Amino acid sequence: MSRLCFGALTIGPMQRNLPLDEGSGLIRLALGMGINFIDTAESYNCYPYIREALRGHPVDVNIATKSYAHTRAEMEKSLHYALKSLERDTIEIFLLHEQESYFTIKGHQEALDYLVSARAQGLVRAVGISTHCVAGVRAAASIPEIEVIHPIINLAGIGIQDGSLDEMLEAISFAATMGKGIYGMKCLGGGHLIPDADRAMEFVLSMPELAAVAVGMQSKEEIIYNAARFSGQTPDPALVPGLSSQARRLHIEEWCRGCGQCVERCTAGALRIESNRATVDETLCRLCSYCAASCPDFCIKVI
């Protein structure tokens, strides 16, 4: 797998919501630059972009996806939905989405057991978890059935739910010694670290435990810049001013009725209801946009 992983969340309806041809075109550009690893999830609704991009593509591509399913039946449905939607016979990595600790993993035991059986059938190649928690990494490191861990990691520790940056680094090191394959997420802190992107990328690239790092990319310039950085080259200086000025924020539309579903969904504690509408504490927001998927009125997005 390429060490740079194409994070598909940012091109989909939860964030940029690109037209199908434009989003799939960006994935094809990435493939042409040697990026053969794509990270997605059922909740991102990005399968159509990936399917379109891979049609007729002769190079082997590795896909990691995730599901919140916690029962055997739900996970079987999620896996077969991914296989059909992506027009694949196998999913390279299938993850339990957003696991917090040993207890949440055990609460998803039926789903994990199904993925293990699917691996034996050749429907998936590796099984794992994604997590924003130190406890999630530590727990997964000691569970034999789990082969891959996808943790949040960045130089500022932005988005780590239950501990410090040093504690996350220690947990990742422990997981690596236990033989787990590890690929990181949110190396730019959901966009907060874009002004310091070079230092942020140097930080994750200096970690030998990370086999790959998923980076959300939604423009040609971002793909070209990141591909250069991850291959040890100096990016074209002309790209830097435009990329470093691209601030991102969580936008909540005026028609928000304050139902509170986004508040319940936000594991960072960044959302609250004030005067019958949702408001965001930008110092806590990870810009993951998971809250957008929970909004029944489609009034939240990262812009």
List keywords for this structure.
303 residues; Alpha-Beta Plaits; two-stranded antiparallel sheet; 12 helices; 12 strands; 18% strand
Count up the domains.
2
Please trace the helix and strand order, writing H or E for each element.
EHEHEHEHHEHEHEHEHHEHEEHE
How many helical elements?
Answer: 12
CATH topology of the largest domain: TIM Barrel
| CATH superfamily (homologous) name of the largest domain | NADP-dependent oxidoreductase domain
Structural class: alpha/beta
Q: What portion of the residues fall into strands of 2 or more residues?
A: 15-25%
CATH class of the largest domain: Alpha Beta
Envelope shape = globular
N→C terminal distance: 30 Å
Specify the CATH architecture of the largest domain.
Answer: Alpha-Beta Barrel
Overall pLDDT level: 92
- Please bin the fraction of helical residues: 25-40%
Secondary structure layout:
Layout: E1 4-7, H1 20-32, E2 37-39, H2 47-54, E3 62-67, H3 72-86, E4 91-96, H4 102-107, H5 109-120, E5 124-131, H6 134-141, E6 148-151, H7 165-177, E7 181-184, H8 197-205, E8 212-216, H9 220-230, H10 240-244, E9 250-252, H11 261-265, E10 271-274, E11 277-280, H12 290-294, E12 300-302
Parallel strand pairs: 1-2, 1-8, 2-3, 3-4, 4-5, 5-6, 6-7, 7-8
Antiparallel strand pairs: 9-12, 10-11
